[in-house]
Amino acid sequence: MKIVVAIKQVPARDSQLRVASSGKWIEDTDLTYEINEPDAYALEAGLQLKEKHGGEVIALCAGPARAAQTIREALAKGADRAIHIEEEEIGAYDPLAAAKLLAAALAPEKPDLVLTGLQSDDLGYGQTGVILAELMGVPHATIIMQVEKQDGAIRMKRELENGWFQHVEMPLPALLTIQSGISKLRYATLMGIKKAKTKEIRRLAPAELGVSAANPRISLDRVYAPERTKRTQLFDGAPQEAAAQLVEKLKFEARVL
Amino acid sequence: MSILAILEQRPNQQGTPEWNRMSFETLAAAQQLAEEMGTAASAAVVGKGIGALANELSSKRLEKVYAVEHDLLRDYTPDAYTAALRQLVERVRPTLALFPHTYQVRDFLPKLATALDRVAVSDVVAHRVENGAPVLVRQLFQGKVNVDVRFASAAPNFASLQAGAYRADRLAEGSAAVEAFTPQIEAAQIRTRPLDLFRESQRAVDLGAAEIIVSVGRGIKEAENIPLVQKLADALGAELAASRPICDAGWLPMERQVGSSGQTVAPKLYLAVGISGAIQHLVGMKGSRTVVAINKDPNAPIFEIADYGIVGDLFQVVPELTAAVQKAKS
């Protein structure tokens, strides 16, 4: 099975974020970056499928030159090769344009399965995978917990809300967005890191793919720190007294008891 | 120019369509936006056997209610839903179509928008209207930063609304005509085969339907201490929930997890016990009407969104609170 895993490099989860003076994005000079966590689970799912059924895992990433680090990590974990769409201004692409980059880059590969995380930790649209499926003309399913390959088809466990799940089947080729936390992520071994150095990373420019960020469908006007909207009433007396005051407020002010 | 709210239902185990509660938040948002933009709101419900749900909407202040019905819409598939809604949107031509940001909407809305060469603005938490056009507020970096987003395309545009961002109890009453809309869908268009719906544990919990939730976090220290919080939940008639570390540790089942990786809830009262309030947790509960936090750290981020708080040792405060609630209710 030929599997493409679309991964994104995002600021590390514990980053202290400051809004840039332009008000258009965050200050990104001192940030450290890592693989988008849900994409790490998509990669893991891809590697597990390959181990079981054979084939190839190709990591696909659109991002600036710094994203090469994240791509190399994916190779070290076991991806066979990678495609890096180099674009310093990837933030200027709306989700449709970003998905067009990915679609154009993977079209000649004709993969059986495309995997990606259910959403990104930075922009969080949760749309790239589904848009990509539509552009590729393949069926998709989102928030996937388990994937099982059958003859020419796959069967998945999808997460729904409120503790519900559903099994879904679809023919290949297909695209799945993978839920975070569904498996234990592997670490790159020393051997893996060594091997990664010899693996192919194909670099593509948006211009060769015929895609640009021009004419976005949506525009990000202004980035800002959220305003604190609530004023907390604190009860700081002895526990018994504080509890009584709280119940009084819940009953007569908030009227929720 | 008009706003179209596209609402969500799912057949229950008897096969009768039931509302997803978030639908009414979307409906309220549609009414609000329509008023601010000087236009009218309509609503649509999609499925099979949804006549009763559509009729329920006829008592709301809406221009029209579209009952989008087809045998192939009985069980959700992204292909059938996209085909049906594309035809509806092309027929109704709304300026803006609003959806609840449910798992189902996440599954088909980007496909629908792409099919119409648009980008949907997903997971919206607020809006304002400037010069007659909506400016939508989204969160970036899991809630650490906000961004104002505008549509740069001509109508129709699309947005989905985060659970709890709009209040369903602010729905305006009125009257609306119900119109049947039968889309053209062929079975051959549907590539996915939806199979069984199931829950994994015996104790099915619908936190989304709970009016009161008592939620417990790392501050509880050990699994043996959970009953302390269960007693408080029982006194309040509340569902017990937890932050992720508690469920990862197996102290409570995963189905009780609230947060970005668990359930999103918006109860009338959310009582956070020993939860610091990491953003992954906050996104799952900040739509709650009233939030109470009990935590020993006065700087815990949970206090930033709490209406009421007790700074103290939960092992002392919770038993007193349980007693005070029992007294108030007796």
Explain the layout of strands and helices.
The complex is a heterodimer of chains A (about 260) and B (about 325).
Chain A lengths: L1 E6 L1 E3 L21 E3 L1 H17 L2 E8 L4 H10 L3 E6 L8 H12 L6 E5 L10 H9 L3 E11 L2 E7 L4 E8 L2 E5 L11 H7 L4 E4 L1 H4 L8 E7 L8 E3 L3 H14 L5
Parallel strand pairs in A: 1-4, 1-6, 4-5, 5-11, 6-10, 7-10
Antiparallel strand pairs in A: 2-3, 7-8, 8-9
Chain B lengths: L1 E6 L1 E3 L5 E3 L2 H16 L2 E8 L3 H7 L6 E6 L8 H15 L3 E5 L2 H13 L5 E4 L1 E5 L2 E8 L4 E7 L5 E5 L15 E5 L11 E7 L12 E5 L9 H11 L2 E4 L1 H5 L20 E5 L5 H7 L4 E6 L6 H4 L2 E4 L2 H16 L1
Parallel strand pairs in B: 1-4, 1-6, 4-5, 5-12, 6-11, 7-11, 14-15, 14-16, 16-17, 17-18
Antiparallel strand pairs in B: 2-3, 8-9, 9-10
Order of helices and strands of chain B: EEEHEHEHEHEEEEEEEEHEHEHEHEH
CATH superfamily of the largest domain in chain B: HUPs
CATH architecture of the largest domain in chain B: 3-Layer(aba) Sandwich
Query: How many strands, which pairing sense, and closed or not: the largest β-sheet of chain A?
Result: 9 strands, mixed
- Largest sheet of chain A, order of strands side by side? 9-8-7-10-6-1-4-5-11
Cα distance, first to last residue of chain B? 54 Å
Q: According to CATH, what is the class of the largest domain in chain B?
A: Alpha Beta
Q: Which whole number gives the mean pLDDT of chain A?
A: 94
The chain-level structural class of chain A is: alpha/beta
Low-pLDDT runs of 5+ residues of chain A are: none
Distance from first to last alpha carbon of chain A = 57 Å
Q: List the strand order in the largest sheet of chain B.
A: 7-11-6-1-4-5-12
Give the DSSP E fraction of chain A (strand runs of 2 or more residues).
Answer: 25-35%
For the secondary structure, the number of strands of chain A is 13
Radius of gyration of chain B: 21 Å
Query: How would you name the oligomeric state of the polypeptide chains in this document?
Result: heterodimer
Biggest chain-to-chain interface with counts: A-B, 76 and 92 residues
How many individual β-strands of chain B? 18
User: Helix tally of chain A?
Assistant: 7
